[in-house]
Write a structure and sequence with these properties.
The chain is an alpha+beta fold. It contains 4 helices and 5 strands. The protein has helices at about 15-25, 40-45, 65-75, 80-90, and strands at about 5-10, 30, 50-55, 95, 100-105. The structure holds flavin-adenine dinucleotide. Flavin-adenine dinucleotide (FAD) binds near residues 9, 11, 15 and 41.
């Protein structure tokens, strides 16, 4: 087996983001998933247009056994960071009802 710095299990939203960020830090990452097709859920979410965040995401919108978890998570990376990432990659998007943001084009690319 190849030497790696980290193994990420699960190659959907959280795993892909985690592997991407670790890669940006220069880490060798192995990303594993038992699904035959990676990211399929991403391609079908939001009716195929990737409902990728909400303009007004805030801790009070989350239900959790540990309500403090989302506070610390959102302190480090929030919807504006993700919107910047989407804009950086020149992915056009629009706002729909309830401040949800969707890609203009199909999430299948
Ligand atoms: C019907 C529906 C529609 C949704 N629509 C949207 C939407 O439009 N926009 C949005 O933002 N969110 C949407 N969501 C929520 C979104 O799907 C989840 O928030 C998101 O998928 C969570 O991502 P995740 O990477 O944490 O986990 P998951 O998406 O559950 O990914 C976990 C991955 O780990 C893999 N895995 C698990 N166990 C193992 C193992 N032992 N070995 C190897 N691989 C393993 C799985 O195959 C999977 O690929 C929707 C959810 C549902 C149910």
């Amino acid at each position: 087996m190849t030497d790696v710095d980290a193994v990420v299990i699960g190659a959907r939203v959280a795993g892909l983001m985690c592997a991407s960020e670790a890669g940006k830090l220069g880490r060798q990452v192995m990303l594993l998933d038992h699904a035959r097709k990676l990211g399929e859920k991403i391609r079908i979410s939001g009716g195929g247009h990737g409902n990728f965040t909400n303009l007004y995401t805030a801790p009070k919108a989350f239900l959790s056994a540990n309500p403090h978890f989302c506070k610390s998570a959102l302190c480090q990376y929030d919807q504006h960071d993700f919107i910047s990432l989407v804009s950086k990659h020149k992915i056009a998007y629009h706002e729909k009802k309830l401040s949800q943001l969707f890609c203009d084009q199909s999430a299948r690319g």
